[in-house]
Amino acid sequence: MNKKSVLGLLLFSCVVIAGMFLGTMLMIGKQPDPDYNQNQQEISQNASDDDSELQADEGEVGSPKQSLDANREDEWLYTDASDNITEDADDETLNNEPTESPDTVEVTPTPSTEPQQDVSNEEEPNPSDSEESPSDNEEGASQDSTDAGDTANTEDGENSDSTDTIGGNVVDLPDMQLINNSNQVDYMQHIPDMVYNSKIEVALDIINPVLDVKAKSAILFDAKTGEVLYYKDPVTPVFPASTAKLLSALVALDWCMEEEEVIAGDELGLVASDSTLARIRKGQVLTVRNLLEGMLVPSGNDAAYVIAAYVGRKSLKNENASLKEAIPEFIKLMNNKAKSLGAVNSSFKTPDGYDAIGQYTTAYDMGMIGLASADNETILDISNKSSARNVFVDGSDVTWSNTNSLIVKESGRYYPYCLGLKTGTSTMAGRCLISVAKKDDRMVVSVVMNSDAVGRWEDSTTLLKYGLGN
């Protein structure tokens, strides 16, 4: 190879190396694509948000982010009930979940720890649906308690088509819309004018005593004669919360024998995520008596739905009826029963009393239901228990604690003449209590609706003492 060829190769090599060097420098010095960088940030942020929501959704029952399975076959009550706490989600929420074995389990209602709750002031509890264990600190607020002035009770909300109602998008069941956010639901538009008939007029034609009662609405009856002894706004619309379970129990006892066996099924999936529970599991075999105790003692919304599905199918004479058929059938039976008792200003939409569009009652109407319950030996026997041990047909052994402080000696609210009946708490209902008490030959039923955490006990005791002659 001659000298010129060698020089040519060297020159070519230098050009190639220089080109590669310049190309590398250009690539290193190139500015990043701003669109590409932004997309990566959005992807990262979305992934973070998804992880947060997933973590919230995997919380325990009672979490405001927990929702029911949207793919369930008979699902028509959905999702997150962050503002409404079914009757008993705060005071009654249970935290001792049974295991899969039939070992003995003690199920005791304890206060919910939902993040939106303010437990610093019992007199002004935050919205929620729950019941209160007698052993709970009376200075703590219940998850589902609220006063009439609570922000949950606004009149500037949306209509029933709002997505702020659970089940609002479900076809074929427009009458069962649980209220998810009472701040955005104009529930009052679904309540008609109250009927003030001659029977009510005559009943309230008394010299009404002056008593210190904090509740928005209250009434006191002589249990034997039905005579009204005291009243405060007795025909004002209020919300029943879990006091509605007394009516569900009356309906169940109209249709069933206590020893009938029931298998818990998919209806458990219809219970709102923030409900108070008796911790019944799908596939468990219970008697009607077991379900009544689970509904009336710890105020289990799950027990209410199991009994509703069973009785609804029994009424339809179709044990294979879907939940979309069975539950509304039971609700129909509830309303028919209420009317037969003289409750003419009530509309019940749920078997457990959970706040729902179009559901309402009055203290007078709940008094009619309370009188019938006080006259029912089974309901009286169950509701008078401070705790109830139940052994299910499948061998499960559970013990429930009563949410009614008036009958629990250790509660600090104990009233020795009280024989029981039912508590109720929800965002819209506030703190409620229907009580029966007996002293010598005197027996009375008191109804306290929309009081506060301390007031419902004090109001009830005031009424009962007056009715029994102190």
Structure description:
With 470 residues, the protein is an alpha+beta fold. It has one domain (104-467): Beta-lactamase, CATH 3.40.710. The chain is 31% helix and 14% strand. Strands 5-4-12-11-10 form a five-stranded antiparallel β-sheet, with helices on both faces. A hairpin with a 5-residue loop joins strand 4 (217-222) and strand 5 (228-232). The longest helix is centred in the first third of the chain and has 27 residues, at 3-29. The chain is elongated and about 135 Å long. Residues 30-130 and 132-174 have low confidence and may be disordered.
Which descriptors apply to this entry?
alpha+beta, 12 strands, Beta-lactamase, 470 residues, elongated, single chain, 10 helices
Domain module tally: 1
Q: Kindly provide the name of the CATH class.
A: Alpha Beta
Order of helices and strands: HHEEEHEEHEEHHHHHEEEEEH
Q: Could you say what the CATH architecture is?
A: 3-Layer(aba) Sandwich
- CATH level-3 fold name: Beta-lactamase
Unreliable stretches? 30-130, 132-174
What portion of the residues fall into strands of 2 or more residues?
Answer: 5-15%
Shape: elongated
* Distinct helical segment count: 10
**Mean pLDDT over all positions:** 75
The proportion of residues forming helix, as a percent range, comes to: 25-40%
Q: Biggest β-sheet, characterized?
A: 5 strands, antiparallel
Radius of gyration: 30 Å
**Extended strand count:** 12
